[in-house]
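Practice problem 4.
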């Protein structure tokens, strides 16, 4: 990964984050502080391989997004922070460690089931690193297998048994470029469309609706 590539990632992430700050402040407020280098090193030690440089860059921007908190006035939990398609929320280092163990277990079960080829995602989840989680048992991850798929971004509905995976982008740079294009122009991302939401108290956040 060259410095030019990482500069492109920083540019596209900044575009997307800037849109959140201007148009979806409740989401932007949920972004955590940068992950410390020591914690990133501990994560790589736990994984047994190095993080993709773009994922490292993302975690150095923010250690994921926080969970929604209750509104002091109504007691209702504000739907903020899950600003990626399908309600995904950026993972922090702790989330990654926890969900990675789940992926490894699922992958081992798939190997034991002997239903997939050796080069399929379903039996290589030990080389996939989560970066975002929804509330329905799915996961979005970065493929860390050496070869042409290295750095590809997939979403997989593990809770629903969908283990083929949906390719979201060939890199995190492409993902945030496409998402920034979508929110800036009210355009599509795959089969989703941005749907900014504002509740009665004026809290604004970003949701994504399936295109019809």
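Answer key:
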């Amino acid at each position: 990964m060259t410095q030019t590539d990482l500069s492109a990632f920083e540019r596209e992430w900044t575009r997307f984050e800037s849109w959140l700050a201007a148009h979806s402040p409740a989401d932007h407020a949920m972004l955590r502080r940068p992950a410390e280098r020591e914690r990133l090193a501990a994560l790589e030690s736990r994984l047994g391989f190095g993080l993709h440089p773009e994922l490292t860059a993302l975690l150095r921007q923010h250690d994921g997004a926080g969970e929604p908190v209750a509104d002091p006035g109504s007691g209702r939990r504000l739907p903020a922070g899950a600003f990626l398609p399908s309600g995904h929320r950026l993972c922090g280092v702790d989330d990654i460690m926890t969900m990675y163990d789940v992926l490894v277990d699922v992958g081992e079960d798939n190997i034991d089931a002997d239903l997939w080829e050796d080069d399929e995602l379903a039996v290589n989840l030990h080389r996939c690193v989560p970066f975002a989680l929804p509330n329905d048992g799915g996961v979005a991850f970065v493929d860390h297998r050496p070869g042409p798929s290295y750095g590809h971004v997939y979403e997989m509905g593990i809770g629903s048994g969908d283990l083929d995976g949906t390719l979201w982008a060939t890199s995190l740079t492409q993902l945030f470029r496409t998402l920034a294009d979508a929110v800036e122009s009210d355009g599509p991302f795959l089969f989703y469309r941005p749907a900014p939401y504002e509740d009665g108290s004026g809290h604004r956040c970003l949701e994504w609706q399936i295109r019809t």
